[in-house]
Write a structure and sequence with these properties.
Layout lengths: L12 H13 L3 E4 L6 H16 L4 E5 L17 E2 L4 H10 L2 E5 L11 H5 L4 E6 L11 E4 L6 H11 L8 H14 L10 H11 L5 H9 L4 H14 E4 L4 E6 L1 H6 L22 E7 L5 E8 L6 H7 L3 E2 L3 E7 L2 H14 L1 H5 L4
Helix pairs in contact: 2-5, 2-6, 5-6, 6-8
Length: 353
Amino acid sequence: MEVSLTLPNLLSPQDMFTLLGLIKESRHIVICGHYAPDGDAVGACLGWQSYLYKLGKRAHIVLPNAFPDFLRWLPGSQYITFFSEQAKQAQSLLNEADLIFCLDFSQPQRLQDMASAVFQTKAKKVVFDHHEGLEPTAFDFAISHPTLSSTCEIVFRLIYELGGYEDFTRSGATALYTGLMTDTGNFAYASNRPEIFAVVALLVQKGIERDWIYRKVFNSWSEHRLRLWNYVLDKNLRFYEDHRAAIFTLSREEMKAHKYIRGDAEGLVNEPLKVRGMKLSISLREDTERDIIRVSLRSTNGFHCREMAEKYFNGGGHDDAAGGQLPFPLSEALLTAEKAIVTYAETLRGEMA
């Protein structure tokens, strides 16, 4: 039985006219997501591609580098081009494009090495994103809603608003639900608005299998990943109880010893927040491709980590889920993280929300 639902519009009539005009006039479309693409970036790209196909438009997805292995089952993901591995093909697609959609990032630097390849082209640039810090001069048209749960939510609501829901495919709906689910921690955070569950209901009506999607994402671990988590939490996790904070580190050597594959550390930064009274968790991990320390921050109970990410880790993000990067070595990154905790000690020690 179908449920009748309505969603508030994200577009003004003028914006709708502009967006549809850009799509109609285009002949070669490329869809991009950010470096180290997560479920929201990959899901948004695949979902938007599915919509464009139904409009009769061919659209290629080009990502800076590969996404986690636990997303490889997503329908259509096998056709994505990776700039890090297929630079010549990716550059050719970008050079031919007259319209480039930039999904789940609003600053060119989030593309890392692919930024110049995208932003030096003559193609029109359109951004759909839910992060703070939009760089408006970089794009020709922007749909930015930092209060929304995910870029997948934005993409679905645009498709719905543009009249594409009836013909929207089950595969596209599966991709968008996956990004919505992963970016909210299976609806554990950033999911208090009723509109989110209206979106979920409409996606379910497209025939997605929510339980199956959950198992593919969260219950498909390898033995090595489980042992890696156990090792990090036992050996590398430091609690700063007076500050209600925790830090853990992960080196390349440790990843190699545990047969690490891309995505094996996804979600690990949330684990320390399961301890009663904790407000902040920081992950410091050596990147496997570049000589940098990848930093992830998560916060709760009234403390917000985005400002810390901006000030100390050359990053940004959401209030309670942020990230950044630091130069090698890991030992210096740990000192920087400890300094950040001390700087915010008063707020971290404050009353719980």
